[in-house]
């Protein structure tokens, strides 16, 4: 053995010892072997023995001959007469060797008998059980010395002892024909989990407060089966024996009839009655079975259940064939009693040697050492297997009768075993174990895709790459490739990618570890992981135009536009800006929600110019069930430039919703405005502007606000070139509350009353007078003129100016 190998072995043993120290594990040794046979014990009486119970293997009690109490001290049995009047003893139970109860019946006094042993002597207990009223005492069991239950036959009564007095507790219901049921067996896992079986085939349960009918055991004709006894290893592992060779099992959820030598397909109804049950575990059950005429000379047999199958056990020839009760302290200490002073003892299964065969795969890839060495072991021996890899290999896992990858590992020899140690080349093995991204993915919105790479191989991985691809149909697009410098075996790392979906629809993401095939791996086919996701489009709210340049004093408008990705029915937003550069003067509803809709609601919001805010602009469709899907202007906001500078326009508190009031995903884009100085000689749209020789056509009409609340009507005008004097004329006349002149906007000084109107003002501003100077107002513009405080629109009247008397309040 090499030094390295010796060191590995020592290390392995140290790991095992450390594990034992940490978890407090006590490694079991092989159980002491028995003879595997039942032997007849010497008994001081030849009378029939009814029941047996003990507190340990050296403290066992039995009742016999109606009035005899037997005791076994681990060496021999002795006999003690019961107190005077104590006759007809038939069952025994105790909470300890100093707290034992025995029950019987005195036919002469017509009273039940309850005896108690305090560790020194037996004495009669006071109780209310009357044979004539309640029936004969039949079964006894308790969870403690102050929680003892007795059942009676004929009457089906249950009595309870609380540590000081016996009281009637419950009576199982009688048969439909009026005769009483019988309590034949009692057992429980605790004071609040007690089972009772009866002659009519019923199983009753006590939960610590109430008794209830739990189950009825029936034969193939639906008739109740006579039940004899009940025992369990826990509240979810309970066995009941009865007539017709029946054993029923409860697993904590339901009762099920078991396959026994009686009702299995190959059985021939050999065992008729299962009268008594005891076990050391769910896989070590002893049952007394009365055999029918097919059993030759036998009458009672002992059946054993190993958790899988049943078998009949041999009993001594000299033993009585009539057996009554079974009890044990362990699998290696079981007592059976019966007629004619029969006491049988079972000391456990006989010693068995088992063989452990060890293989290595592939051949020459390593070795396995056994502790203890050898290969053949007594039953129950625990063998530790330690695998050592040859150069260039690493231990991977066990197979056969040992599984997992723990090394060293232990196995219990309870049968012949065959184990194979598997070794693999000492190489890395990269896998993608997880591919995560947000649940909601939107076109054009970046998301983080996280790939978890794990090295499940047997060696560390040097530098390698991880790639993410997006598949749309058969088309693949590389998202990005990231490098990982190294990854130790048995460890993992997360790699993040940023992906901006270019189109909506169903796509598949694929992550590939070692996408460049830079390293050799144990498995080159497990490097990929895919995940499907759906990319959806967001509705968009943006400012249009996104960037605008205006001059100081200019009034201008911007639209808040919504482009829906799904049908919508409402929207809202807040807007912020630099109040030193510009201010909001008016907010109007756009056409977004009016597309084919009969009615809408619009809230113009609150203008807070000192703080540069417009808040609470909202609108909704009020036509029931209506929605819109086309893009449009949600709101038009009118501004006035105050001073040179620039400002960002930020949209916030943005919600776009459907008709159910649910918000839909929305992308938000703001804008910016630059305010410049007026052109030289102009300013604010007044003086010195070049005058076209022909009237200027109407282009991009807008709204010019007037003094007063935002709800007052603005003035429609031509968006003439910056600095054109006609704009200031309109603003001036509108501010004065009147506009004298002709609807087509021409200046005619030869007509009465015009010298002080447009002509006089325009001439003074333009430095000229006379009919050669025109205001250059398009005739349709004058038709849309409206003055502050008035809703009335004034149509053009050829040949007649708009006079003050034409104005009417709204």
Poorly predicted ranges: 1-31, 263-267, 681-810
Structural class: mainly beta
CATH topology of the largest domain: Methylamine Dehydrogenase, Chain H
Mean pLDDT: 81
Number of strands: 58
- What's the total helix number? 5
Architecture overview:
This protein is mainly beta and 810 residues long. The protein has five domains: 309 residues, Methylamine Dehydrogenase, Chain H; 74 residues; 107 residues, Immunoglobulin-like (Sandwich); 138 residues, Immunoglobulin-like (Sandwich), CATH 2.60.40; 113 residues, no CATH class. It has five helices and 58 strands. Strands 45, 47, 49, 50, 51, 53, 54 and 56 form an eight-stranded mixed sheet that branches. The chain has a five-stranded mixed sheet with strand order 37-43-42-39-40, with no helix packed on it. A five-stranded mixed sheet has the order 48-52-46-44-55, with no helix packed on it. A hairpin with a 2-residue loop joins strand 6 and strand 7. The longest helix has 21 residues. The chain is elongated, with a radius of gyration of 51 Å. The termini are far apart.
């Amino acid at each position: 053995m090499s030094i390295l190998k010796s060191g590995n072995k020592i290390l392995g043993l140290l790991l095992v010892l450390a594990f034992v120290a940490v978890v407090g594990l006590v490694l079991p040794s092989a159980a002491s072997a028995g003879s595997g046979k039942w032997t007849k014990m010497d008994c001081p009486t030849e009378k029939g023995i009814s029941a047996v119970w003990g507190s340990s293997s050296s403290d066992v009690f039995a009742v016999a001959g109606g009035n005899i109490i037997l005791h076994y001290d681990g060496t021999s049995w002795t006999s003690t007469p019961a107190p005077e009047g104590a006759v007809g003893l038939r069952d025994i139970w105790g909470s300890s060797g100093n707290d034992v109860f025995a029950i019987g019946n005195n036919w002469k006094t017509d009273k039940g008998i309850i005896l108690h042993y305090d560790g020194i002597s037996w004495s009669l207990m006071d109780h209310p059980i009357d044979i004539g009223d309640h029936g004969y005492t039949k079964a006894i069991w308790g969870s403690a010395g102050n929680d003892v239950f007795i059942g009676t036959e004929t009457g089906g009564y249950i009595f309870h002892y609380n540590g000081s007095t016996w009281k009637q507790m419950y009576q199982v219901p009688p048969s439909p024909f009026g005769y009483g049921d019988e309590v034949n067996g009692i057992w429980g896992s605790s004071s609040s989990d007690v089972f009772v079986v009866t002659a009519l085939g019923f199983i009753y349960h006590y939960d610590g407060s109430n008794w209830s009918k739990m189950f009825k055991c029936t034969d193939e004709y639906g008739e109740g089966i006579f039940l004899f006894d009940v025992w369990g290893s826990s509240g979810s592992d309970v066995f009941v024996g009865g007539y017709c060779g029946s054993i029923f099992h409860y697993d904590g959820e339901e009762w099920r009839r078991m396959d026994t030598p009686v009702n299995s397909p190959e059985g021939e109804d050999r065992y008729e009655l299962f009268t008594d049950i005891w076990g050391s575990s769910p896989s070590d059950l002893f049952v007394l079975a009365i055999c029918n005429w097919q059993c030759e000379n036998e009458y009672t047999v002992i059946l054993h259940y190993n958790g899988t199958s049943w078998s009949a056990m041999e009993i001594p020839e000299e033993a009585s064939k009539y057996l009554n009760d079974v009890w044990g302290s362990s699998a290696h200490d079981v007592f059976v009693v019966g007629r004619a002073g029969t006491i049988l003892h079972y000391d456990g299964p006989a010693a068995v040697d088992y063989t452990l065969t060890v293989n290595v795969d592939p051949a020459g890839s390593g070795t396995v050492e056994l502790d203890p060495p050898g290969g053949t072991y007594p039953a129950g021996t625990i063998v530790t297997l330690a695998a050592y890899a040859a150069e260039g290999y690493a231990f991977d896992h066990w197979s056969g009768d040992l599984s997992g990858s723990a090394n060293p590992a232990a196995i219990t020899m309870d049968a012949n075993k065959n184990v194979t140690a598997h070794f693999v080349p000492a190489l890395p093995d990269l896998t993608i174990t997880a591919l995560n991204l947000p649940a909601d993915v939107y076109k054009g919105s970046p998301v983080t895709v996280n790939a978890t790479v794990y090295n499940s191989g047997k060696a560390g991985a040097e530098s390698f790459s991880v790639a993410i691809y997006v598949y749309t149909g058969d088309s693949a697009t590389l998202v990005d490739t990231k490098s990982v410098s190294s990854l130790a075996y048995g460890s993992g790392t997360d790699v993040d990618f940023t992906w901006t979906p270019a189109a909506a629809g169903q796509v598949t993401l694929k992550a590939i570890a070692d996408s460049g095939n830079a390293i050799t791996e144990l498995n080159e086919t497990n490097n990929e992981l895919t995940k499907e996701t759906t990319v959806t489009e967001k509705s968009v709210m943006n400012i249009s135009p996104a960037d605008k340049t205006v001059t100081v004093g200019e009034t201008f408008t911007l639209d808040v536009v919504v482009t829906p990705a799904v049908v919508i029915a409402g929207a809202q937003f807040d807007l912020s800006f630099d109040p030193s550069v510009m201010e909001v003067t008016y907010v109007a509803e756009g056409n977004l929600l009016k597309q084919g809709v009969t009615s809408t609601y619009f809230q113009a919001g609150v203008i807070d110019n000192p703080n540069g805010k417009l808040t609470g602009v909202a609108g909704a469709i009020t036509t029931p069930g209506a929605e819109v899907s086309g893009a449009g202007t949600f709101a038009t906001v009118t501004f006035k430039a105050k001073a040179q500078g620039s400002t960002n326009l930020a949209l916030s508190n943005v919600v776009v919703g459907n008709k159910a009031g649910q918000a839909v995903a929305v992308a938000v884009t703001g804008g910016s405005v630059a305010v410049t100085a007026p052109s030289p000689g102009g300013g604010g749209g007044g003086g010195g502007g070049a005058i076209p020789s022909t009237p200027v056509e109407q282009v991009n009409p807008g709204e010019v606000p007037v003094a007063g609340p935002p709800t007052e009507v603005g003035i429609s005008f031509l968006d003439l070139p910056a600095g054109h004097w006609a704009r200031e004329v309109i603003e001036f006349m509108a501010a004065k509350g009147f506009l004298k002149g002709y609807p087509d906007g021409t200046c005619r000084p030869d007509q009465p009353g015009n010298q002080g109107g447009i002509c006089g003002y325009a001439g003074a501003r333009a430095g000229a007078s006379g009919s050669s100077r025109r205001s250059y107002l398009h005739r349709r513009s004058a038709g849309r003129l409206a003055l502050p405080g008035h809703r009335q629109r004034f149509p053009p009247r050829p040949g007649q100016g708009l006079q003050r008397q034409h104005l009417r309040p709204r």
